Amino acid sequence: KTTLDAWHEFKDKCSNEALVIMPVQTGELREFAIKNNLFVLNLNKKQGDPRSGQNVDLLEEVLAWLQPNVPVYGWEQGVSEDQFVARISKSGHPMIPCDWSYNHSLTSLLYTERQQPVQAQSFNPKLIDFDKKRNYVSFFLSDGDNIQWMMQDFATGFYDVPEAIEVKMSYGLPVSTLSMMAPAQLHNLMNLRRDECSVLEMLGGGYYYIDTYSQNNNRNDNLKIAAERLAVSMRRYHVGLLGVMAMDVKSVASKEAYQTFVDANDRLEGIIALQYSPYAGGGGEVFWVTNKNGYDIPVITVRYSLWDRIHEREGSPDFIASKLKAEAQVESFSAICVHAWSRFEGNAHGAAAARLCAGKLDGRFEVVNMQELVWRLRMSRHPEQTLEYLNKIF
Predict the structure, then answer these.
(1) Is the pTM of this model over 0.90?
(2) How much is the mean pLDDT over the chain?
(3) Who's near 13: CB < 8 A, 6+ residues apart?
(4) What is the C-alpha to C-alpha distance for residues 37 and 288, in angstroms, rounded to an integer?
(5) pLDDT one-digit tens code per residue, 266-283
(6) Distance CA 141, CA 8 (A)
(7) Cα 23 to the center of its chain, rounded Å
(8) What is the pLDDT of residues 225-240, one digit of tens each?
(9) Parallel, antiparallel, or unpaired for β 170-173 and 270-275?
(10) In the structure, what pLDDT confidence band is assigned to residue 117 with cuts at 50, 70 and 90?
(11) Distances from the Cα of 216 to the Cαs of 221, 228, 318, in angstroms?
């Protein structure tokens, strides 16, 4: 029988509160799908062979059958994200990359009872010397939405590493989704945070594009629901920075989404916006969004990406450092995304790759974590309201 046959025969026995997308004959999410009565759809009609076609028409039918804003778990190998993530986003669902992690019925068991409070980081922006002017640079790691990575070598290979302190590395974590799928591991990762580093929520409760989210159905309502859900987990875990992904970070739809996230969370300190391709498509441009209390919140687009491929805004540590030095001013604020899977000189990756880049900068520059970058930018552009807010909150 084909997957289409299974859909026609078993649709009425499946829950429309989630979907699993996985290749046929894989076991990672099998028990999770059975436990929750979820339909499992193999996007590639033939395992490991994208040339044999995809179940795209069936995917669109199943997505329309799902309840709004419910997750799609898993992934498909060898297929462009245009084939599935783009469709999932437009239909108003977050994609949860977890095709290589097991036992989520166990790791998520009674998650509401197992979510543990965590202490806020000791970072206090009132202690920043705002009179000092430099070209400020902040490095953060990509792919922080990836649940399976969080369950495997993220902590030991990328997060809890000595180079992170040297470059005050910032890390995206899937705080909202991991708090439900594996609360014990989220608690572990939050306890491993270094005071010198920053944590961002990535990418807003799953992987989707904020400018296309729920394009096909009730966009405003569904985006608002996603933002309000996200605000709960960010406040619970004392995360004030949000990383988002858009097909076009400068589009009207993206700016509407920025406003929605800011409206939902009056403790949101700043947003870092990546473009789908290239990540640095925003060129470092900053947009300002006013929250309900009248404070202006920065949306900082990625200026450059450390990536082992050639592009005018992506490249090696040497290349990115040369670009930054050529653009140096009296004061500037640059968010640099470090592509998690790229390798450079000496197999340097993650924070070690950021250290290579930082080592090429001169005295006009200073490397700071993302929270400090955000607060320096806020104080530089809106000093009176920023000082008022800091005195009120800290």
Answers:
(1) yes
(2) 96
(3) 37
(4) 44
(5) 999 999 999 999 999 999
(6) 43
(7) 24
(8) 999 999 999 999 999 9
(9) unpaired
(10) confident
(11) 12, 20, 43
**Do 200 and 370 contact (CB within 8 A), yes or no?**
yes
List, for residues 238-250, the tens digit of each pLDDT value.
999 999 999 999 9
Q: How many residues does the chain have?
A: 394
pLDDT at 24: 79
Residue 182 Rama label (left phi>0; alpha psi -120 to 50; beta)? beta
Whether the CB-CB separation of 199 and 178 falls below 8 Å is answered with no
Structure tokens at 95: 């994609």
Q: What secondary structure, in 3-state letters, does 168-230 show?
A: CCEEEECHHHHHHHCHHHHHHHHHCCCCCCEEEEECCCCECCCCCCCCCCCHHHHHHHHHHHH
Q: Could you tell me how many helices (H) and strands (E) the chain has, helices first? A: 17, 15
Residue 202's nearest CA partner among 138, 264, 150, 262 is 150
CA distance readout (Å), 344 to 37, 315, 351 = 44, 10, 12
For CA atoms 146, 147, 149, 150, give the dihedral sign.
Answer: positive
- CA atoms 344, 348, 349, 355: torsion sign: negative
| CA dihedral for 116, 122, 126, 130, sign (positive or negative) | negative
Quote the CA–CA distance of 343 and 333 in Å, as a whole number.
25
Which pLDDT band, with edges at 50, 70 and 90, does 1 fall under?
A: confident
Look up residue 301 and give its two tokens: 């687009």
Report d(CA 100, CA 90) in Å as an integer. 25
Calpha distance 303→200 (Å, rounded): 17
Q: 10 Å Cβ neighbour count for 204?
A: 27
Q: How far is CA 257 from the centre of its chain?
A: 15
Say which residues have a Cβ less than 8 Å from residue 255's Cβ, sequence separation at least 6: 287, 289
What's the confidence (pLDDT) of residue 174?
A: 98
Determine phi and psi for 346, rounding to 5 degrees: 70, 25
Domains for the chain: give ranges and CATH numbers: 3-104 (3.40.50), 128-393 (3.20.20.490)
CA dihedral 122, 332, 301, 293 (to 10 degrees): 60
